[in-house]
Amino acid sequence: MDQTAKMKELIGRLQEAAKAYYAEDREIMSNREYDALYDELVALEEETGMTLAGSPTVTVGYEAVEELPKERHESPMLSLAKTKEREELKDWLQGKDAILSWKLDGLTIVLTYSEGKLVKAVTRGNGEVGEVITNNARTFTNLPLQIPFQGELVLRGEAVITYSDFEKINEEIPETEAKYKNPRNLCSGSVRQLNNEITAKRKVRFLAFSLVTCKPGSTEEPRPDFENSREKQLEFLKKQGFEVVESKKVDEHTILDAIEYFEKKIETYDVPSDGLVLAYCDLEYGKSLGRTSKFPRDSIAFKWADEIRETTLKEIEWSPSRTGLINPVAIFEPVELEGTTVSRASVHNISIMKGLELGIGDRITVYKANMIIPQIAENLTRSGVKHIPEECPACGVKTHIQKVNEVEVLTCTNEECQAKKIKSFTLFVSRDALNIDGLSEATLEKFIGKGFIHSFSDIFHLDRYKDEITRMEGFGEKSYNNLAESIEKARNTTLPRLIYGLGIAGIGLANAKVICRYYDYDIEAMKKADKEELSEIDGIGEVLGEAFSSYFAKEENRKQLEELLRELKIEKQPANSGEQKLAGMVFVITGSLEHFANRNEMKELIEERGGKVTGSVTGKTTYLINNDITSNSGKNKKAKELEIPIISEEDFLKML
User: Which residues, 6+ apart, have CB-to-CB distance to 157 below 8 Å?
Assistant: First the structure.
């Protein structure tokens, strides 16, 4: 057994023992045995210079942030040219050797290590700018937090959640409507959490697929010799403790057999994949080919040919939404696609229906886009669109067909449509708004359908229906009590959360905070604000200003807010009193604090005084706040490099 495998085994045994002792009040090994295994792990970590994720020798702290800072990639992350033809891949090789590997279906991440430690993790984003998720990456189950190489190492890979872990997570969610749709969506949401304790629970893994930069940390440290080989680079990453995507070295004689190998394996492969990637093994040759405006020329993606099944369209189900759109969903005779039974597919809008000439009883072909999302490929009989509902299925009020950007959509004309209420209530009880556990969209739909809820304030009086709720399927005394406790807890909230929860078009939590601060948390002043004044607020603008003022111009909305204010206790916020001393300044906070309970408390103070807080040091940063001014941390180094002042808490408080 090699050293890395031995370390993984030891970590697993120590984690199991710790869980049994601390969480289950039982011992599966003696203290002496535990200490011996722990010491063996420490010795291996010192010998290899590597610390793997989950090691009991390190503790990953949990931290919540207000937002994920954005950062521009040093080199753009381009998409790959694609093909579904195997022979095209063979021709593409042009007699060269290449590496064939899985094209993983997760979230691409760029990692940076310095002096052997993970210092930064950034998502792909739009290819130019990504989100910094360093704290979240530290909780990935298999990511080394420390590696032997002491220089600067930048690599790319895919964050993924396996099918088996995805199923376990979904099994813990009782309501069908609340279950996650697929591993990729769950992974994307998990990686981009504001609280990395949630990320840790999702069992995200990282699989490396390419090395970007490898610079020695000192003149004494030798530069790794990759012999101009992509294969050698991947071997180097393995030696650093990274789990590397499975790959095979191929040429024009072996590539078709290699594709067949992956094609057979995907049937039981636990990691989501939507194809393969082929990249030249010769690094210099690949680099010499350059790139187009969209794609690099040193690699190409192979997408599996879509599995297509023929079936019969049984009906079109019209699904109303919070926005007023009523979306068509095709219901067809069930077919097996990519290992699952499929019987419905979204048609999106009337224009697509008309393009397909979709009628009940038509013979259609269906497939899964990216092996995940069911879609209609073709209508073989094309009998034509005949029945577009004239009344909304949810409320019975007249519908209307309108054109939006040249696309025909069906809308409900009733402002009080029950379907719109369901989506509005879902937002109102969401985490960033009133944060009420136990009120999923499915539960809200049941409560609204039974007449328990007509307005937001009715949520705080569900005790009137306790007997009926406890008798409902899926509910009971315990579920009701948990819900009641969550509702009582939600009575204490902040004004920005309440404003966001009202569902004003375009007003997110960040916008709500900006508006509240501008008006010194004076709700009466906010209700009377006109769009011109709102438009002048930095970060709001004309469109959001008009949406905000139009909302409060309606009597029913003002009445709804008044009813809510009678139910809620709004936390007092210090008034700005015109003291915008930090206006226009951008701060980064790092290290431990002495005068503030946490970084969020300091962040709120800065924002109240007109400043802004970001997560990474850039040319736009005004000050880096760090009590350890002489530290050699990454942020301190960056600040010194950009000649940005580093100040302590004491310095900051003097500024105020």
Answer: 108, 109, 111, 206, 207, 208, 209, 210, 242, 245
Q: How many other C-beta atoms are found inside a 10 Å radius of the C-beta of residue 193?
A: 21
Distance from C-alpha of 32 to C-alpha of 29, rounded to nearest angstrom? 8
96 CB burial (10 A radius; 0-12, 13-18, 19+): middle
Query: Rg of the Cα trace of the chain?
Result: 28
Rounded Cα–Cα distance for residues 595 and 589 (Å) = 13
Mean pLDDT, all residues of the chain: 85
pLDDT value at position 11?
Answer: 87
Q: What are the start-end ranges of the E strands in 132-204?
A: 152-160
| Cα–Cα dist 412/28, whole Å | 62
Provide the 3-class DSSP secondary structure of residue 568: coil
Of 8-22, 567-581, 637-651, where does mean pLDDT reach its minimum?
567-581
Q: What is the pTM of this model?
A: 0.51
- What are residue 326's DSSP bridge partners? 320
**Is 489 a residue of the active site?**
no
State the average pLDDT over residues 399-423: 82
pLDDT digits (tens, 9 = 90+) for 40-73: 888 888 888 888 877 887 755 555 556 688 888 8
- Three-state secondary structure of 23-87: CCCCCCCCHHHHHHHHHHHHHHHHHHCCECCCCCCCCCCCCECCCCCEEECCCCCCCCCEECCHH
Task: Please check whether residue 99 is in contact with residue 249, taking contact to mean a CB–CB distance below 8 angstroms.
Answer: yes
**Catalytic member of 70, 84, 103, 554:** 103
What is the C-alpha to C-alpha distance for residues 621 and 585, in angstroms, rounded to an integer?
A: 8
Mean of pLDDT values over 485-495: 93
Question: How do the residues of the chain divide into helix, strand and coil, expressed in percent and rounded to 5?
Answer: 35, 25, 40
Q: Are strands 299-303 and 82-83 parallel, antiparallel or unpaired?
A: parallel
DSSP labels, 366-402: EEEETTTEEEEEEESS--------SB-TTT-PBEEEE
Is the pLDDT at 166 greater than 50, yes or no? yes
The residue among 376, 383, 387 whose CA lies nearest residue 344 is: 376
Tens digit of each residue's pLDDT (9 = 90 or more) over 428-446: 998 889 999 888 887 887 7
Q: What is the DSSP letter of 365?
A: E
Q: Give 34-39's long-range contacts (Cβ < 8 A, gap of 24+).
A: 37/10, 37/13, 38/14
**CA–CA distance, 8 with 16 (Å, rounded to integer):** 12
